[in-house]
Amino acid sequence: MENKFILKDCEFIKSPNFDHRPKNTVVDTIVIHCISLPEKNYDNENVTLLFLNNLNENLHPSFGSLDGLRVSSHILIKRDGQLIQYVPFDKRAWHAGKSEYKGRTNYNDFSIGIELHGSVSDIYTEDQYLSLKNLIDELKEIFPSITDSNILGHSDIAADRKNDPGPNFTWEKIK
Ligand SMILES: [Zn+2]
Predict the structure, then answer these.
(1) In the annotation, is 172 catalytic?
(2) For each of the chain's 175 residues, which pLDDT tens digit applies?
(3) Among the options 115, 126, 141, 172, which is catalytic?
(4) Alpha-carbon Rg for the chain in angstroms
(5) Of the candidates 87, 84, 69, which has an alpha carbon nearest to the alpha carbon of residue 27?
(6) 35 CA → ligand 1 middle, Å
(7) From its phi and psi, is residue 68 left (phi > 0), alpha (psi between -120 and 50) or beta?
């Protein structure tokens, strides 16, 4: 049966790192992140491996800190704008961590997590902005409570820990 919470025409690789949203949750927020493993290296599948709990932490010194980490996002937008989905949108992905903004906490509960394959010290590609904008439009149709003011960066909701998507992310391109 068709599942409106899984994108059509998009690769779906199911991550085990998800659970149920609290009962009666209204999804009204999008959280934008960036990730690359190692940082600024894009020609590999390491983000997918991380979300599948299959990343070998011995591959790179920077991976040691990821040992035992159980994380996921709903979507990864690759450098060429291609999307991979890991978690159905009605389920809770594990991307926000400890989070607080405008009096709300636990952003994983009511948000969609989108990772851009990138780095806070790199620029994002035009293909990524285009795909992100299209994806946001699609998500607004599925979840009408999502508004532009609820499209946030990880740095907004975890200001003491996180700085992604970073100063190079051009918000005007998606709002
Ligand atoms: Zn993040």
Answers:
(1) no
(2) 679 999 998 999 999 999 999 999 999 999 999 999 999 999 999 999 999 999 999 999 999 999 889 999 999 999 999 999 999 999 999 999 999 999 999 999 999 999 999 999 999 999 999 999 999 999 999 999 999 999 999 999 999 999 999 999 999 999 8
(3) 115
(4) 15
(5) 87
(6) 7
(7) left
CA 153 – CA 164 distance, rounded (Å): 7
Tell me how far the alpha carbon of residue 22 is from its chain's centroid. Answer: 19
Alpha-carbon distances, residue 41 vs 10, 38, 45, 56 (angstroms): 23, 5, 10, 16
Give 30 Cα–ligand 1 centroid separation in angstroms: 12
**Domain spanning 11-173: which superfamily?**
Peptidoglycan recognition protein-like (3.40.80.10)
| pTM (predicted TM-score) | 0.97
How many Å lie between the centroid of ligand 1 and the Cα of residue 162?
6
Q: Which amino acid is at 100?
A: E
DSSP for 142-153? H-TT--GGGEEE
Q: Which residues pair with 30 in a beta bridge?
A: 112, 151
